[in-house]
Amino acid sequence: MVFAIVASHPIAHQQLTTAVPQVKDCSMTNLVANNQELSQACDNISQAVSTPFPVSSPTPNLNLTNLTHKERFLLTIKHQLLTIPQPGTFDYILLRAYGAAFVDEDPEVKLPQKVVFGNELETKEFQATLTLEKVKNTNDCYLQQSAAAALNRVRSQIPISLKSGYGASDCTRTFETNLRFWRKYANDKTLEKVREGKETAILGLVAPPGSSQHLWGLAVDLQLTNLAQKKALNENGWFQTVENDVPHWTYLGQPQEKLVEFGFQNRVVRGISYWLTPL
Ligand SMILES: [Zn+2]
Q1: In angstroms, what is the span from residue 176 Cα to ligand 1's centroid?
Q2: Which residues surround ligand 1, an ion (CB under 5 A)?
Q3: pLDDT tens sequence across 131-153
Q4: 79, 70, 97: which is closest to 197 by C-alpha?
Q5: CA 213 to ligand 1 centroid distance, Å
Q6: What distance in angstroms lies between residue 134's CA and the mean position of ligand 1's atoms?
Q7: SS3 of 131, please?
Q8: CA 79 – ligand 1 centroid, Å
Q9: Phi, psi dihedral angles at 154 (to 5 degrees)
C-alpha cells in the first residue's frame, strides 16, 4: 500500500528538503514515464539519493535546488493532472499560461484533471463538484469556498471592487461566457495560431474556450487602486499569475515564499509583479 501512503502525502505537502516521499512519488506513477521533463526531474532525484548519506543523518537533506524551476513546478503539480502535457502541445501552452492554480494544496479546493474542457457539458460536470460560496457584498460573485473565504478576509480588511461589478463574469464563469469572451476578441484562426504556438499575446487578454481559470471558481477580476490592496491579496493566497492580464487574480492558497519553492518565476511587467509558471 505504498501508493496509499504517497497519495495521502502528495509532494506539495512535503518540504522540498525531504527526499524520500518524492522518490516514491517518482517511482509510483505512470505519469513520470510519459513525460520527459518529469522523468528527468526524477532521474535527478534518484541520482542525488543514491549518493550515500552519513549514518548520523536519519533524514537525508537533499538539496532540491539542483532541480530546475520547471522540474520543481512539474513535480508539485503532477498529482493534480491525469497527464502532464508534453512541451509543444496546446495543453502545455495552456498549462504554462493558466496552470498556476494547480499548486493549490488545500484539500477543499477542487481542480480539474485536465487543462481544457472540451465543451459545456464537461465544464458543467466539473462545476457540479464544486462547493461555491458567494463573495460578500457582491451581486452574483461565486468562488470555491476557500477562495471566497480568502477574498472575504481581504475585503474585510480593505475595500476592493470587482472589475465590472456585475459579479458573474468577474468570478466563476460558464463555458458559454468563456466562449463569448473569446469570440469578442478572437476567432478560430487565432485559436489555430495558439495551438501551433505562434500566438501567445491573446492568452493575456482572453482564455481559449474551456481553458479559463474562471471556469474553476479560482479566479476573480478586480479593480485595484493601491498597493495595500495588492499586499492584502498576496497575504491571503491571491496572486496575479497571467502575464498582462492586470485585473485577473488567481487563488493559489499559498504564501509567497512557497511560490519560489514551487518554481514560480516572478516577473515585473509594466510595474505589475506576476508569478508565472516556469514552463
Ligand atoms: Zn480574469
Answers
A1: 15
A2: 221, 248
A3: 999 999 998 999 999 999 999 99
A4: 97
A5: 7
A6: 17
A7: coil
A8: 25
A9: -60, -50
| 170 CA to centre of ligand 1 in angstroms | 7
Residue ranges per domain, the chain? 2-84, 110-236
pLDDT (0 to 100) of residue 8: 36
The CA distance from 48 to 186, in Å, is 47
* Distance between Cα 139 and ligand 1 center (Å): 17
Nearest CA-CA partner of 160 in 254, 216, 230: 230
- Rounded to the nearest angstrom, the distance between the alpha carbon of 47 and the centre of ligand 1 is 41
Distance CA 158, CA 160 (A): 6
Determine the distance separating the centroid of ligand 1 and the alpha carbon of 247, expressed in angstroms.
7
CA of 15 to the centre of ligand 1 (A): 31
Element (H, E) at 248: strand 248-251
CA dist 70 and 218 (Å) reads 23
- pTM score, two decimals? 0.80
pLDDT tens digits, residue range 38-60?
A: 555 545 444 443 333 333 333 33
Bridge partners (DSSP) of residue 221 are: 248
Centroid of chain to Cα 277? 8
Q: How confident is the model at residue 165 (pLDDT cuts 50, 70, 90)?
A: confident
Beta bridge partner(s), residue 223: 161
Q: Give the model confidence (pLDDT) of 218-259 as tens digits.
A: 999 999 999 999 999 999 999 999 999 999 999 999 999 999
Q: Quote the percentage of the chain above a pLDDT of 70.
A: 76
Q: Which grid coordinates belong to 192? A: 489555430
CA of 222 to the centre of ligand 1 (A): 8
Is CATH 2.40.128 the classification given to domain 110-236?
no
Distance 163 CA to ligand 1 centre (A): 9
